[in-house]
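Quick one: Patatin from Aquilegia coerulea, structure tokens please.
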Amino acid sequence: MGSNGKNNSVLVNGTSDPSRPTCKMVTLLSIDGGGIRGIIPGAVLAFLESKLQELDGVEARIADYFDLIAGTSTGGLVTTMLTAPNKNNRPLYAAKDLIPFYLENSPKIFPQNAKSMIFGPLQSVIGAVAGPKYNGKYLRSKLQELLGETRLSETLTNVLIPSFDIRLLQPTMFTTHEARVNELKNPLLSDICISTSAAPTYLPAHYFETKDSNGNTRFFDLIDGGVAANNPTNMALSHITREIRMKNPDFYPVKAMDCSKYLVLSLGTGNPKQEEKFNAAAAAKWGLLGWLYNNGSTPLIDSFMQAGSDVVDINTHILFDSLGSERNYLRIQDDTLTGDAASVDISTPENMQTLIRIGNELLKKPVSSVNIETGQPEEMKGQGTNEEALARFAKKLCNERRHRQGKPIIP
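--- reply ---
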């Protein structure tokens, strides 16, 4: 966690080194995609970081406590902001600065001009045929300005950011682990962020190349990671499992998929409330435009992103529950979004304040899981509120870090 490539190695030539600390818990953070709704996990992360600071001091940062942070689309942007180094080799942003970043930059990424507000439905229909809704120029320039020449291999802890290669029609996962051993998989962080957030119909696809010292070139033609994994929790688990199977010494002596030794926090960006506004009778008549635009929504994109996120959550809950480790997996998600709050690009001051309120209120709600039959969240008895669960997580995260540093454990 927060190693910046430096192993807390306890293996030397395949044998244990008792002078180095072991890993008691593998710690993972996952952040969904969801456009401007990234404000919601931003509020949750600000609370978590405040609890870490209460235990370990004001300089504590999210990146110091997680072995891997995974994020898709807007979650990929948050992941990068929390792990990219500044000039002092500390995280570029504290968690408390995430929401101010959204408030300042979202109206420029998703401009809401008077013309679009008046002719919004007509423009959306035309845009579904003519090209992406936004040109993406501000987002690209902002990311390039913030991240400069910083590459994936330089993140302060390990990250995983998915995208989707439209030329190869397959997912592309960018990971710090691979970037440190393969130059062709070590692009600029700005290119990764632009790619993972290139949501179809909203922002343009992104092309870039990487080259290695032998003159080899790799080409990337990428769109939003939500096409492959809007909720990247399973990708994060699979990646860490692979690293353990490959005997990565950072995770010794944890065994692959020993859920009792995994601590996983998964943050959603909110789902629309089940309003039953679509039905099979109506959808049976839709053509391309009907699936891309219907009464202010994009049914095709909304369906596969929400379905993918929920399936990952359900499967992860089942996995941890069946192995007796249900308290080691915490999913925080709001399933009651309505109106503008359910959109991914409404950047009006009113809507952004609504999303902040939703994120703060989410902390007070009980820990829940999705019912596979109804799709409705159900309270998990005995686990208290999300706020209380995060406080417990913060203590576990601090104790794991202290264990590795050889410091006293918090009772």
